[in-house]
Write a structure and sequence with these properties.
255 residues, 28% helix
């Protein structure tokens, strides 16, 4: 009997220590809302999730959008500060999220910014205090390659419950990586740069070749000089051709 009590006591003590250890580990990586903030949480190591760059000023950072499957309502969202919309038609006054009917006849508050609360992992922020108990969950997806935020509306997921989704590098722990805000060159820009480089190589290379390989001088050092001398006349002929509507004079003998 004493052996059984001793063994069971050791098991209980081991389980107790194990639970304390798990709780301590989990607690060490919890993102806690900063005092006085509604959109910034910090981890114990000092890194933060800061939604401030995603917020609009006196307007939603994420404008009204319908769920991907369509619907009678669209949804707007703004982290950090509240926005107002709808005038006398609804209750969207200084809200974090607003639900708007398709015919613009109804506006509903579906979350107040003052009620914002991050999940422990920082991948979700919730808002309550909406009209008639409405509440909204915003899923936060970290993508270090997405500097321009992506906004997806899932819409109503339950009774007076709504879900939105935001993807951005600003949601990542510590914010966007250096250089993520730089825009890459478009295909057209790359073509323009290549064209300028090729023209430069053509002119300089041609001039050097004609001068030292062929012993040319004066305007003769310009590559294909005869072509460039005729170029204005060719352009003129082209304009005349287009202006005449591609018609040539023709005459027919009467029979």
């Amino acid at each position: 009997m004493e052996i059984f009590v001793s063994v069971s006591g050791r098991i209980c003590l081991t389980l107790h220590v194990l639970f304390l250890f798990i709780g301590a580990v989990v607690g060490q990586d919890t993102c806690t809302m900063l005092t006085g903030s509604t959109c910034v949480c910090a981890f114990p190591d000092g890194t933060k999730i800061d939604l401030t760059p995603l917020a609009g000023t006196n307007k939603p950072g994420f404008d009204y959008k319908e769920p991907e499957g369509g619907g009678d309502y669209s949804y707007a969202y703004n982290p950090c500060t509240g926005f107002s919309d709808g005038g006398d038609l609804g209750t969207c006054s200084k809200v974090a999220a607003c639900q708007r009917s398709k015919d613009l006849s109804h506006y509903y508050n579906i979350g107040n910014p003052s009620t914002a609360e991050f999940s422990g992992t920082g991948d979700l922020i919730s808002y309550t205090g909406g009209e008639e108990g409405r509440q909204t969950d915003v899923q936060l997806i970290c993508d270090k390659n997405t500097n321009t935020p992506k906004y997806v509306v899932e819409g109503q997921t339950g009774d007076k419950q709504y879900k939105l989704q935001v993807t951005s590098c600003h949601i990542c722990r510590g914010g966007c990586p250096p250089g993520s805000g730089k825009k890459s060159l478009s295909f057209g820009s790359i073509l323009c740069i290549l064209f300028v480089v090729l023209v430069f190589v053509y002119l300089i290379g041609g001039i050097i070749f004609n001068r030292y390989a062929r012993g040319a001088s004066g305007k003769e050092v310009i590559p294909n000089v005869s072509l460039w001398e005729e170029f204005p006349l060719l352009v003129k002929d082209g304009f005349v051709f287009v202006a005449s509507c591609c018609k040539s004079d023709s005459s027919y003998e009467s029979i």
